[in-house]
Amino acid sequence: MVFVSRHEHFNAAHKLYNPKWSPEKNEEVFGPCANANWHGHNFELIVTVKGEPDPDTGFVVDLKKLSRLIRREITEKLDHKNLNLDVPFMKDKMASTENLVIEIWKILVTTLSTISDRAQLHCVKLYETPRNFVEYYG
Amino acid sequence: MVFVSRHEHFNAAHKLYNPKWSPEKNEEVFGPCANANWHGHNFELIVTVKGEPDPDTGFVVDLKKLSRLIRREITEKLDHKNLNLDVPFMKDKMASTENLVIEIWKILVTTLSTISDRAQLHCVKLYETPRNFVEYYG
Amino acid sequence: MVFVSRHEHFNAAHKLYNPKWSPEKNEEVFGPCANANWHGHNFELIVTVKGEPDPDTGFVVDLKKLSRLIRREITEKLDHKNLNLDVPFMKDKMASTENLVIEIWKILVTTLSTISDRAQLHCVKLYETPRNFVEYYG
Amino acid sequence: MVFVSRHEHFNAAHKLYNPKWSPEKNEEVFGPCANANWHGHNFELIVTVKGEPDPDTGFVVDLKKLSRLIRREITEKLDHKNLNLDVPFMKDKMASTENLVIEIWKILVTTLSTISDRAQLHCVKLYETPRNFVEYYG
Amino acid sequence: MVFVSRHEHFNAAHKLYNPKWSPEKNEEVFGPCANANWHGHNFELIVTVKGEPDPDTGFVVDLKKLSRLIRREITEKLDHKNLNLDVPFMKDKMASTENLVIEIWKILVTTLSTISDRAQLHCVKLYETPRNFVEYYG
Amino acid sequence: MVFVSRHEHFNAAHKLYNPKWSPEKNEEVFGPCANANWHGHNFELIVTVKGEPDPDTGFVVDLKKLSRLIRREITEKLDHKNLNLDVPFMKDKMASTENLVIEIWKILVTTLSTISDRAQLHCVKLYETPRNFVEYYG
User: Fold this and answer.
1) How far apart are CA D35 and CA E80, in angstroms?
2) What chain F residue is nearest to B3 in terms of C-alpha separation?
3) H or E element: which one contains D63?
4) Which of A102, D9, D42, D117 has the fewest Cβ atoms surrounding its Cβ within 10 A?
5) Full-prediction pTM beyond 0.95?
6) Mean pLDDT in residue range D77-102
7) Pairing state of beta strands E120-129 and D81-82?
């Protein structure tokens, strides 16, 4: 079993804001992350799959295909977008990095088989900043 | 003459949109950067000053003071903000990295003397993404 | 279960020196790391916790609180210090990165509950240089 | 159990080409990676071992010895080489990063005991580019 | 005058070999860089242009256009290629990073005007490895 | 004229302390950098030379020779050392990064001619931390 990873990126705006709470409570809990006019990040996304290399290619997965899958299913839907307003799969969810990484996993775990019958999704890792990142293994 | 640099960072939302133009022309010129609902970045800011080291300290400038100056005058006004809506010194300007770096220069060149009488401002460098950056020397 | 990580840093001096051994044996085993007058590093510390996101915040842990905890309990006690002389929790221990990461774990595993009742400590990772690093999972 | 890692690097040329296939099929499957005249990379190699620290040294493994082992057994055989033509342990194998990391593991798992009786090989990680990397755990 | 930079990359094989010299002299001067079977690198290319921002866009140059220009004129001709065999503009030249950066400059200085009438080429910077890089200013 | 750079590194301990001042004034001016028991850094050193490439080699300077020169003259005298106590060329000087980069320049400017008759020293750049760095051009 070899683990193979591909790094992609996207830029997006978001805010952390719970509509069930008052503005004061949002400000108290989320601080500047609750700024009504949004803020944003350069997100770095690392997707890891695992499997046995194909004897004919030496590949667990063709990384060009994995890159295209991630772009088509994930980063084209997030890049230069507002995570709270523009992204159907984040609708009605808190736009935290934790929730975002879970939704990215759900999409990739059902679409990975379209590019490989030997690779399984292992991990989705997402950097919000160079100092804050999350990982999800399903 | 020694050149001394300090690296700071901030996260912000913005869009590129010229209000004199139609939405179609903005979309044509700026593409996804014109997204009405904003996008954002982790900006990395590097400020370089120059001067002769003080014989008593070995310093051109005390980097703790330079860091505090940059935070107070620049990054606290930009961090977790919307460059188009929340930042007085960007009002009525296109929120491009080029314009932002010029405005940052203008503020630092008039405030640097409050922390040092031997350092002169040399360069302001601003990364919008790891692959796109600008520099301004006055 | 989502894994959430925070990156902090500190600068410190240390040496590798076993007081039970002769200076010659220390020099033989540790080489330049045994230099009597010390050497030092920019340490990079990554703390990973795990848990289920809180439905109200989308957070496993508030990263501002995790950052403050790491600073108060760990990096303020290590930054600009001598690991052999200035740090109570390293007293009478070899100042290796392995021993340091174990002591950091012991402190965080008992204090993490003060900032979150849903996050568990998962991993402490410590870079001594960009090319040498250690990890501890308890 | 503490995990200790060492980062090394090497530069090499290679191509992805299956001699059982026609040139057209190679071009179709591998694209520019099948270029007859080769291409190349700066490979970054991270080797992780695990074990309990030695009470006398604080070390799971002496990283100078681990570095020398990796250089002697691995990187000196790969650096400034052609992976398809110059490397005995890659002979008759597809020169994919997946196959390379498996062969590196096989060599290190049998030679690690020459430098330590307490460290076990845990992981070999290999970056082909900053955006593509593989890991192998045996 | 603002300086604007764009970072691109390519992977290539090359060797350092002077055909006027004996194999022994090549080996003596270039060492492993003269390996007959080639070696390779992940090259990182940074192109800097300068000019006054356009008042309507805030841009010195549209970075999407600069990126496309660099890809069409430079990196598509170098990526996954052999610098000695596959690249017309390096024919009969030593495949050193110094010579490569001069040739890249010559191409960009004559094509930049196709995407901007206000930007001038300022610098071409090329990393051969993370530790070795060259710059050319014309 | 092409500019060619080489990146080296060293680890060292130091403190900022002016012996003409009281301990209180040192503490006031230098804060934790004046810690009596020292602190330390992973210093990153980038040396840039300039010249015209040699037509026979394509080199401004042989980077293997430049690397060996920097190691012999500079980093072997600084690595795993105490900048205040162990380094003859820093004796009786404040151990600031500014003063260190000037002394490194003085040594390299007089020894560069031993490895090349076409390269001139252009810049010495020294990172004390990833966020603080200095440059000296003579």
Assistant:
1) 7
2) F135
3) helix D63-70
4) D117
5) yes
6) 98
7) unpaired
**B33 catalytically annotated:** yes
Whether A38 contacts chain B with CB within 8 A: yes
DSSP E47-110: EEEEEPPPTTTS-SS-HHHHHHHHIIIIIHHHTTEETTTT-GGGTTS---HHHHHHHHHHHHHH
Could D96 and A4 be called an inter-chain contact, meaning their C-beta atoms sit closer than 8 Å? no
Closest chain D CA to residue E83: D39
| Among the partner residues B6, B7, B53, nearest to F98 by beta-carbon distance | B53
Nearest Cβ partner of F40 from C32, C40, C130?
A: C40
**CA distance linking residue F110 with residue C39, whole number of Å:** 28
Main-chain phi, psi angles of A76, to 5 degrees: -65, -20
Q: What is the pLDDT of residues C19-64, one digit of tens each?
A: 999 999 999 999 999 999 999 999 999 999 999 999 999 999 999 9
Could you identify the residue written with the tokens 């505090």?
Answer: B68
Whether the Cβ atoms of residue A72 and residue A108 lie closer than 8 Å to each other: no
Segment (H or E) for B51: strand B39-51
Which of A7, A9, A39, A80 is catalytic? The answer is: A80
Query: Could you say which of B27, B33, B44, B122 is catalytic?
Result: B33
Plot region of A60 (φ>0 → left; ψ -120 to 50 → alpha; else → beta) = alpha
CA neighbor of A134 nearest in space, from B42, D131, C6, C66: C6
Active-site residue C128, yes or no?
A: yes
List pLDDT tens digits, range D102-111: 999 999 999 9
Are A54 and A118 spatial neighbours (Cβ–Cβ below 8 Å)? yes
ipTM of the complex: 0.97
With contacts defined as CB-CB under 8 Å, which chain B residues touch E8?
131
For C102, the token pair is 């174990």
Does F39 sit within 8 Å of C12, measured CB to CB? yes
pLDDT tier, E27 (very low <50, low <70, confident <90, very high otherwise): very high
Residues of D with a catalytic annotation lie at: 33, 80, 128
H-state helical runs in chain B: 23-30, 63-70, 76-78, 97-111
How far apart CA B12 and CA F36 sit, in angstroms, is: 41
Cα separation, A132 vs F114, whole angstroms: 47
Dist CA F75 CA B9 (whole Å): 31
Spell out the domains of chain D, with CATH numbers in brackets.
Answer: 2-136 (3.30.479.10)
The H or E element containing residue A48 is strand A39-51
Rounded CA separation D49/D112 (Å): 9
Q: Which residues of E are catalytic?
A: 33, 80, 128
Q: Cα(E62)–Cα(F18) distance, rounded to whole angstroms? A: 51
